[in-house]
Amino acid sequence: MQHASYLERRGQIEAYFDRTAAQAWERLTSDAPVGRIRATVRAGRDEMRRTLLSWLPPDMSGQRLLDAGCGTGALAAVAASRGASVVAIDLSPTLVQLARDRWQADPLSTTVTGKIEFLSGDMLDPALGHFDHMVAMDSLIHYDLPDLVRALDTLSQRCQGSMAFTFAPHSTLLAAMHRVGRWFPRSDRSPSLAPMRQVELQRHLTHTLGAQGWQEGSSQRVASGFYTSQAWQWSRACA
After folding, report:
1. Does the first or last residue of the chain, that is N or C, have fewer Cβ atoms within 10 Å of its Cβ?
2. In this structure, what CATH number is given to the domain that contains residue 154?
3. Are 119 and 87 in contact (CB under 8 A)?
4. Which domain holds residue 194?
5. DSSP per-residue codes, 52-97
6. Nearest by Cα to 165 from 220, 100, 215
7. In the β-sheet with 227-236, what is the strand arrangement from edge to edge?
8. Contact at 8 Å (CB) between 229 and 167?
């Protein structure tokens, strides 16, 4: 059962990405010119995507991937080009439709052996089925520690191989940058992040996931101007 805190935050995230800032995110995830601050965010997200993709197999033929919080679909497109069957889901129907449109317009979509199913909804929905791999790029960073751990616990029960996700790392500098971010117009602000210390997150995940046979793997921080996020991979010991 999903906790009230998760449901409340999920609603805030959906409202922001589907209505408040949909156009801004469409521009940010395109090749259109953006301001200096957004350019650092774009560069950081591109680097983070490359990092997460580097942890997935180069050949994903016959494998199923959950792109949890797919946004405009850039990661899903690369995974499909590797042969994966991708379920790309996001809370925002607007962004999901944009992702679908971009993929259909991409010449790659007609030549790859993989496929993408675009859905709008909750990444924790058990109806999505089971997966070989799961990626959650910047889709868990708005949830506090208990909700983040519960979400990963839920996802781990339907994932056979690896989970790669990002979280907002705690730091004095990052906290200061978030305070500066509050000066921006309200329409440009995303729901607040939930910075956390990796050692504390590690303790909780070791207790929760370790009992199920999961082991921590690679970890990488990406810092680019106003973008800072920590990637972490966990995998099943038998995978």
Report:
1. N
2. 3.40.50.150
3. yes
4. 4-236
5. HHHTS-S--TT-EEEEET-TTSHHHHHHHHTT-EEEEEES-HHHHH
6. 220
7. 115-120, 85-90, 64-68, 131-136, 159-167, 227-236, 214-224
8. yes
Please identify which residue in the block is written with the tokens 């496929």. 115
First to last CA, the chain: 28
Which DSSP string do the residues of 17-60 spell out, in sequence order?
IIIISHHHHHHHTSSS---HHHHHHHHHHHHHHHHHHHTS-S--
Strand 115-120 relative to strand 159-167: parallel, antiparallel, unpaired? unpaired
Cross-strand bridge partners of residue 89: 68, 119
Q: How many domains does the chain have?
A: 1
Q: What is the pLDDT of residues 183-217, one digit of tens each?
A: 444 444 556 788 999 999 999 999 999 999 999 99
Q: Give me the phi and psi of 130, to 5 degrees please.
A: -105, 155
Per-residue pLDDT at 106 exceeds 90 = yes
